Amino acid sequence: MIVRTKRWNVSQMKVWGIPISYMYLNRFSELLIHKPREGLILSFLATILSPLRWIFSNFTESYLRKTIPMKKYDMIPKHSFFQGVAAGLFCILPEHFYDKVEEESIILKPSKTFEFIKNGVLIEGDATPINADVVIYATGYKGDQKLKNMFISPWFQKIVVGTEDTIVPLYRYS
């Protein structure tokens, strides 16, 4: 698994026995964030509640660092968990994910770029290729543009992506 952007990994939706939705996914948590064109009262409230945002984030991060071996595999992101939740930069891991990493049936490699070779994938900075029978190209948002930019030929770009009227954009709440 080649990771271009490190994200907070959540193995379950509870932190220290408290559901994450109680801290992040409710109307109260919306008061903790400054928003464009918010009024004076909401801005003041978000400023006053910012220590609570910091406490929630550190509370969650301490649990994740203790229970998930992200540090061992150099997968701890630079942003806080709260920023990750607000921007959608966290992922929910399947059950026993890091057990599969320990067994080496899943290999984690942080890298910004890679290239395809005959037998798999070559990661930037690694001399040894990763042999792979199947490569799943999960690009995230604007994946169509990333696929299009892989090819120089306009003919291939049109085949891979199609035309503007055949593309259905992904929706992202912001």
From TrEMBL:
**Which of UniProt's keywords are assigned here?**
Monooxygenase, Oxidoreductase
Q: Which GO terms describe its molecular function?
A: monooxygenase activity
* Top-level lineage group: Eukaryota
- The protein here is known as Putative flavin-containing monooxygenase 1
Q: Which species is this record about?
A: Dendrobium catenatum
